[in-house]
Amino acid sequence: MVSKLNRWTFGVLFGIAGLACATPALPASSVASDAVRQAMVVTPPPAPVVQRAAAPAARPQPTAQAQAAQARAAAVAQAQRPQAQPAPAAPVAALTARGRSAIVRATAYNSLAGQTDSTPFITATGTRTRPGVVALSRDMLRLFPYGTRITIEDLSGRYNNLLRGRTFIVEDTMAARKTGSLDIWMSTRSQAINFGARQVRITALR
């Protein structure tokens, strides 16, 4: 009886030990398939990091003092450039007066501010006053424009010896109130006074 009991006891113990040493159960087939699929997925490499160039530093704005200095420099450069002298009227304008003749009242003037303006040595066309220059009233300028070369004949005959053979050029104009008049430039006031006022015939040279 004891021996049977012992054999039964040993059998139970060996059965329990066998269960403990048994091969572990395998995972379900779906779990294994998912593991294989994940292993086959190729992970893309990380995107390269692009280093952006730093924005250029803003240029410093010129100060008000620097801007004023630049403006002064530009003004000095402009002032140093040669200024074009106003040219007399184109000779083409005088061509229409060739051969034209008119009788006008003639006087004489000098380079004095009281007789001209604040620039008594500069004519209306920008030239210098000199012997041979004459000024016409504005109504006569329509007939004998700037640049017209004329001869002058004193109708009294008194000054013809001084006027004969001379050529005068229209480069100046008279005050707006004057009409039908001519002014001959002379170098001295005494010459202008001696000439006085007289009737003359002016003729545009052909």
CATH superfamily of one domain: RlpA-like domain
The portion of residues forming beta strands comes to: 15-25%
The rounded distance between the terminal residues' Cα atoms is 174 Å
- Could you list the spans in which at least 5 consecutive residues all have pLDDT below 50? 19-23, 84-90
Q: What order do the SSEs take from the amino end to the carboxyl end, as H and E?
A: HHHHEEHEHEEHE
Quick one: overall form? elongated
Q: What is the strand arrangement across the widest sheet?
A: 1-5-2-4-3-6
Write the CATH fold name of one domain: Barwin-like endoglucanases
Number of strands: 6
Protein name: 3D (Asp-Asp-Asp) domain-containing protein
Keywords: Signal
Organism: Deinococcus radiopugnans ATCC 19172
What does it look like?
With 206 residues, this protein is of the alpha/beta class. It has a domain at 100-204: RlpA-like domain (Barwin-like endoglucanases). It is 33% helix and 18% strand. The chain has seven helices and six strands. A six-stranded mixed β-barrel has the order 1-5-2-4-3-6. The longest helix is centred in the N-terminal third of the chain and has 19 residues, at 2-20. The chain is elongated, with a radius of gyration of 58 Å. The model is unreliable at 19-23 and 84-90 (pLDDT under 50). It comes from Deinococcus radiopugnans ATCC 19172. Keywords: Signal. Residues 1-27 form the signal peptide. Residues 55-92 are annotated as: Disordered. This is 3D (Asp-Asp-Asp) domain-containing protein.
